[in-house]
Amino acid sequence: MNYIDYMKKELIPAFGCTEPIALAYAAAKSSEVLGEKPEKIIARLSGNIIKNANSVKVPGTDGRKGINISLVAGAFYGDASRELQVLENMDKSKLDEADKMIEEGIVQMELVPEVPNLYIEIESIKGDNYSKIVVEKDHTNITKIEKNGEIIFENPYDKNNDTIMDFSFDKIYKFAKEEDYSEVKYILDEQIKYNIDIANEGIQNNWGSNIGEIILDSNPEDFTEKMVAYASAGSDARMSGCEKPVVINSGSGNQGITVSVPIILYAKEKGFSDEELYRALMFANLTGLYLKQGIGKLSAYCGVVSAASASVAGIAFLENESEEIIEETLSNALAVNSGLICDGAKPSCAMKIASSLRNAFLAYEQAKKGKSFHSGDGIVKPTLEETIKTVSRIARYGMKETDEIILNEMLGNEEYLKKFED
After folding, report:
1. Final residue in a domain of this structure, among 113, 143, 161
2. Which letter does DSSP use for residue 167 in this model?
3. pTM for the whole structure
4. How many domains does the structure of the chain reveal?
5. Exposed e or buried b for every residue in 116-127, given b needs 16+ CB within 10 A?
6. Residues 175 and 134 both lie in one domain
7. Which of 1, 79, 160, 369 has the fewest CB atoms found within 10 Å of its own CB?
8. Residues 272, 140: one domain?
């Protein structure tokens, strides 16, 4: 798969936080296969899906949040053909009906161990009939469809056959500088429109903890802080159920907002051409995908760290900085904020975006002044590629138990947690 095709696959619009929306999609698809509305929904989920869907508000549900409403809204009122926009035309007059079904216990949730971090299995039951949908690795990647014991579709997930892109800094840089972007212009146009729209919404209205507004009020004349504020505001709106789509990156709306909004604002403020903006967005999006490839879509590692690093590197790219400066910007940023944890989708994501972007802007200034970190300074390696690999290993393997503890803390599982007290 080439970079153009990969961007078409990964940079897609999503209506609402991707984990609850993936649940709604799977539930809608299961209900569609069943051919009738279920009387019981059994959700067998990975820990990371539970963590990321547990606390976030679901668009179209008037502020309701969590797993149960995602499943019921998808199964009864969603349009599976719309995939990650499955709830875009949700009939809000049915919300009281949904609440009643949830209160009566229509949803049964089970944590499934030893599965991919992104794993959703939805079984819909009505009388003697049932349907089952399995989604793995990607938010809409159905690997199994079953109805009443018959396998209708099966394409088992095999981690050995994952799409591994041939990423490197040099290849991404050259591609963004030279490649014809006409095939992905529509994607970049959507990203510019959708992601700025939700950022404006977050600034102008009361969403979440209003982190963007707080930042702007504190530093109204600082343009760097304005970029930080707008990206944070977009997240606050999205995490609080705002009914606006976002073009995602690495399976995440927050990462999609973070990687793009500062670049878009910067290009417009400084008068860069449309072509320069498109090329900077291509560079930043691909860099964000590169930084997350070795980590995976869901983990204990907060993905906005990589998205913010890529975003500010995209601004450096826009300014036609040398490859060395851009590489050092990425390395400096990753060296510092890579310990930021993901404890699910919720309003504090906006502040993590602010922290990560501020860190990345400082990393850029550090590189320009010739003060970058050196190989051997903690996790910094001789090359950017080696530093990225190091961060990936820490996030994927080193933070595995961290991920489990975060989930059990969120669920209040004292039985699991008490073993750490001795």
Report:
1. 161
2. -
3. 0.94
4. 2
5. bbbbbbbbbbee
6. no
7. 160
8. no
pLDDT in tens, the chain (422 residues): 899 999 999 999 999 899 999 999 999 999 999 999 999 999 999 999 999 998 899 999 999 999 999 999 999 999 999 999 999 989 999 999 999 999 999 999 999 988 989 999 999 999 999 999 999 999 999 999 999 999 999 988 776 667 789 999 999 999 999 999 999 999 999 999 999 999 999 999 999 999 999 999 998 999 999 999 999 999 999 999 999 999 999 999 999 999 999 999 999 999 999 999 999 999 999 999 999 999 988 889 999 999 999 999 999 999 999 999 999 999 999 999 998 999 988 889 999 999 999 999 999 999 999 999 999 999 999 999 999 999 999 999 999 888 888 888 888 888 878 877 76
| Measured distance CA(407)–CA(417) in Å, rounded | 10
Q: Are residues 214 and 310 in the same domain?
A: yes
Domain that holds residue 93: 16-161
Residues 152 and 235 in one domain: no
**Residue linked to tokens 């590169």:** 290
